Amino acid sequence: MKLMKKSDWVAISAFLLVLTVISLWCIDISISAMLSGGYLTNGFSISDPFKQYHVGLYIVILATFSNFLIILHIILNDSVHKEEKTIGTYEQTQRFEDEPAKRPLVSKRLQP
Prior knowledge:
With 112 residues, the chain is mostly helical. The chain has helices at 6-36, 49-92. 67% of the residues lie in helices and 0% in strands. Helix 1 (6-36) packs antiparallel against helix 2.
């Protein structure tokens, strides 16, 4: 199974954002049809404005929740990878006590 990269998640999130905008448009035209007492002729399979309104609401809710989960996944994966990178570096760094004494303990002016 192939692991998804961050760019893949961003592309899915952008698609869900477009889906959210389309759903909001469906809600808009459904409310207009409800207020005018008509029915929908926008090319969708549902001509009842009440059903179209609720379908739009459900899609907005699902897309928004999915986008939230994707953003949370990206943030948590970044923090996990940062922790993994920093854990290995502490063991490899040289400690202060292990450094060879390069500087004299007394300045040159005070040395005999």
